[in-house]
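[User] Could I get a sequence and structure tokens?

[Assistant]
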Amino acid sequence: MTSKISFSRLRIEDLKHRLSMIIISFFLFFMSDILYYLTLQSYIHSEDYRIVEEFVRVFASGSYWQVYIIISLAALLGINAFHFLHNRSRVDFQMSLPISRRKHFWMIASNGFLIFFLPFLLSILVQTLITTALGVMRAGYFTWIVKGFVSGLLTFFLIYFLMAVCMLLTGQIYVALMAFLVFQSYTFVVIRLVLETLSTSFFQTYRVMADGMDTIFKMLSPFMVCVTMVENYSITCLVAAILWIFVLILASYWLFQIRPAESAGVAMAFSRGKLLIKTMITVPMGIVVGLFLSSVAGLENGILLYLGSILGGVIFHGIIECIYQNDIRALWSHRKHLLANLILIVAVILVFDVDLIGYDSYCPKAEQLEGIKIEQSGASFTEYFEAQEERNIQLSNENCEKIIDKLQEIIEKNKNNNVLQADDNIYYVNVDYYKENGKKIKRTYKIHEEDHDSLLDLLYDTEEYRHNIYRIYSTDAEKIIDIKVCHPEMVGFPALSDAEQKELLSILKEEWDQMTYEKMKKEYPIATIEISYSLSGSGIQDAVENYSVYPEFTKTIAFMKAHDCKMGASAANLKLINLQVVKYNDTGENNEVLITDQDKINAVKDKLYYQELRGNSYSLRKVVGDIYARDNRNQEYLLYADQETMDFLLK
């Protein structure tokens, strides 16, 4: 053992040998300060002080630029600190020093931290002086600085000790760099990509990952933890960073204690971990190759996926063995390991292929649910069925059981592949199950038109569901900031007093209470009322909803007409000179005819409707054809009509 003085001298000698890293560290933070000064000057000259304040806040609290500087510097310092372990002559010298491995490790690790910390702290002080000198200091500046300081330290420790672990696990620099890149992105990029792609390929009802899984994958990747700290400075992120740092410090300390000196120059320092690391890389990367080949061929889940994944497994197993043994002839070595990995690859794919976890057949019991949300995916009229984002749909036990029974019926049809083999109209319906334990489970069901209609008819006729999805039932008129009326021929902004806004909401509630899904399918909307809200009370628009106006909404129509807003979506007022009528048939052979008979045109004008209402309204009625109309001013219009009118025009 050495004395305290000799230990201090050893620290100084180590710093002398790392002079280049000291210069690089000061240079990187100096360039960061120069960038800060120049950018801040340009924003000040623009005289937009909101941008100036936002820039100061973002830069002080930890911008992407600073994070990438810290990540790069931490990785370089990690390599610089432990690169002697990869050199046989240097490792013999270092390990022969009269100092315990424990003290040796902490001396090396702490020197790396000092090389980062002093320039980092100086950079923060310079940044503060620049902010003060340019007169843009703000009240929250020191809070932002503390946030940036903490996130900077955590980012450094995460990357620094991760690189230390990679250097300690390996005996060659390029292998350590590959290990570093793998550990950085393994869970978030590789595993997440494989699981999500397999789920999309095999599960009929898959929509998105389960709630919280995306966050978990981010927290399992040190690099994503660093990036997330910039985007969302949350307690979850801070706890994940601290736990990662704790684990990495312990791992690097333990590996330094047990690392054999003779491992310098070999790919892996510890032979016992070779199989585990090889399996962790071979299995997911083999599946990635299979997914790539099958997607190129346009076959998402066929036999090519299995064959491609096996081929990928063979390739990556061979590459890793060549790296391990530093010999191209090792490509086919350890065949038992290769066979085990290939079996594991096939087993993983089979879990998804035959749905061993029962993903597609899952349907919760009604008593397990607090609410349910159903919407049609990709439709223009999802406002009819979409819950307010911050609320789920509370249903009574009786109504919930009816909905669940219908969904179970749909699931059984999907099991038997009835939907996949159907030639008729297919709909995609998104369902969110809100469970009592707080979990939210999302599914997408591919269903027949008749099932789609019966499901939405059952749901929409449930008063509690309708009252949940429309803000007019839950939001005060005082939060309305704008009302717009969209008509085919105009867009109007009626000037309504607070009392008149309340009256309009009351009328809409009353008439929407009488509306059913079945009625929507039989009637064309004649206008749209778009209501913008400021739910936060800040006066800034943060919610917009559209309400279709149907012919039977007599009170709403009278109210809007009294405020000079047009109602009615038919072409009755147009002076049409011809109609190009196209009727769609199930056979794919469409009927098409040009009509110029003025008497025939006038007889049906009030039954022809605009396809666009200049808003988000959408008719639930099935469009059986298109009508291209031209008026006496040579203006063209796209119209549609019901089955009876189309038949009359085509006679």
